[in-house]
């Protein structure tokens, strides 16, 4: 006797089984319903079935059930499954979130450079991006304000094999600093700015242990005003900065507006000739 199925969907309209892919650590996938894209952190067994934890490029974590056809890799639908055997060790990450290269020697310095406004800016960039910069051979130097930028750029003479990137504090359109930045920007020189009055403010308040950075009245020295409002020693802003810097352990302690600008400069000065 012929057996009949209750599924009346024509064979050509039925979903074909998706390829099964082991959810190995650091595999990058996209969840089909939400569009959340991230790297696999771990797989766990729960009463409702296995789940996978993903981490996006900003460090945000999301947990999803490992349902059939629930994810995409390179635009193709897949079914994530638990890895067989012990999970391989997850590559260590640098403070910037990039994959660390253990034991790698620093590359010979490029002709290209990144300039920042002051010593604190340089120290913060070294703290978070130091590993990446050494691997890429990019040196960071600092200015003492933006007024001397035209002369610095002229002396540097940026070109195809020696690109120059500059990070400026509190770059506001129409300001004197903005006009200076516009005057030196070229195919081989990129000036970008972040919205913070001082690089201190680019550190997340929660990382420093405060609710928010204090508002300092116009005309007052910003760092002195911050120290006074927070009850820190006003006479020693350098000591205050060392306290702030000590609370920065990775890119997660910095505001996104700074992260994007620094990454943009690194990409610019390391672009292929």
TrEMBL record:
Pfam families: DUF3097_C, DUF3097_N. Residues 1-21 are annotated as: Disordered. Residues 20-83, 113-270 form the DUF3097 domain. This is DUF3097 domain-containing protein.
């Amino acid at each position: 006797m012929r057996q009949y199925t209750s599924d009346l969907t024509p064979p050509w309209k039925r979903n074909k089984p998706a390829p099964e892919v082991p959810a190995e650590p650091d595999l990058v996938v996209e969840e089909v319903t939400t569009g959340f894209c991230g790297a696999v952190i771990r797989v766990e067994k729960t009463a409702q079935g296995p789940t996978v934890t993903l981490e996006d490029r900003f460090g945000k974590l999301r947990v999803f059930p490992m349902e059939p056809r629930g994810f995409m890799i390179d635009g193709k639908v897949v079914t994530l499954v638990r890895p067989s055997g012990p999970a391989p060790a997850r590559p260590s990450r640098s403070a910037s979130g990039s994959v660390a290269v253990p034991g790698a020697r620093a590359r010979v310095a490029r002709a290209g450079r990144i300039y920042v406004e002051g010593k604190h800016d340089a120290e913060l960039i070294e703290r978070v991006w130091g590993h990446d910069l050494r691997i890429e051979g990019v040196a960071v130097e600092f200015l003492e304000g933006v007024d001397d930028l035209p002369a610095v750029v002229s002396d540097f003479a940026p070109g195809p094999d020696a690109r120059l990137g500059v990070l400026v504090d509190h770059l506001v359109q129409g300001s004197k600093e903005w006009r200076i930045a516009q005057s030196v920007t070229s195919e081989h020189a990129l000036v970008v700015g972040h919205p913070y009055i001082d690089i201190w403010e680019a550190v997340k308040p929660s990382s420093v242990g405060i609710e928010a950075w204090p508002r300092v009245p116009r005309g007052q020295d910003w760092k002195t005003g911050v120290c006074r409002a927070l009850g820190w020693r006003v006479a020693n802003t350098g000591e205050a900065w060392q306290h702030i810097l000590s609370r920065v352990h990775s890119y997660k302690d910095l505001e996104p507006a700074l992260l994007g600008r620094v990454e943009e400069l690194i990409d610019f000065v390391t672009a292929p000739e």
